[in-house]
Description:
Layout: H1 5-32, H2 39-48, H3 59-66, H4 70-82, E1 86-90, E2 98-102, H5 104-112, H6 114-124, H7 130-149
Antiparallel strand pairs: 1-2
Helix pairs in contact: 3-4
Amino acid sequence: MQVDSGMDEKKFIFGSIFLLSNRLQVLGDQMLAEEDMTLRQWFLTVMILQFDEKPGPTLGDVAKLMGSSHQNVKQLALKLQQKEFLILEKDEVDARMLRLRLTDKSKDYWEEKKAEQNQFLQKLYKNASDEEIKKTVSLFKKLFQAVEEF
């Protein structure tokens, strides 16, 4: 049986997603180490910012967006709460729900880091054209849609 080169490329992309994810996590953790922060904690703050600030997203909202369990997100949130980067608070209407709210300390910290983050992204994408980036965004949207359909 002859192997389709298109299938080989799809396998390469699939494996590369995992490899790139692992390498980016190590690199991110190294960059954030001096602040006693991890890339996953940074990612949680980015996910919280995708929601309206008031009343703040629930733990479940963020877990769903991150594609993670409530338990994993709560562990990350508790660590960020210890560092005074976010507040976990019970919902005013339904006390069973926990809401996540970034603190002013967190907002100030990430504002200070904005230039450094932009510089990191410039270095990361330095060999990619605008067209390649647009095609990659399109492909990832299609992959996310396919995963949702599973």
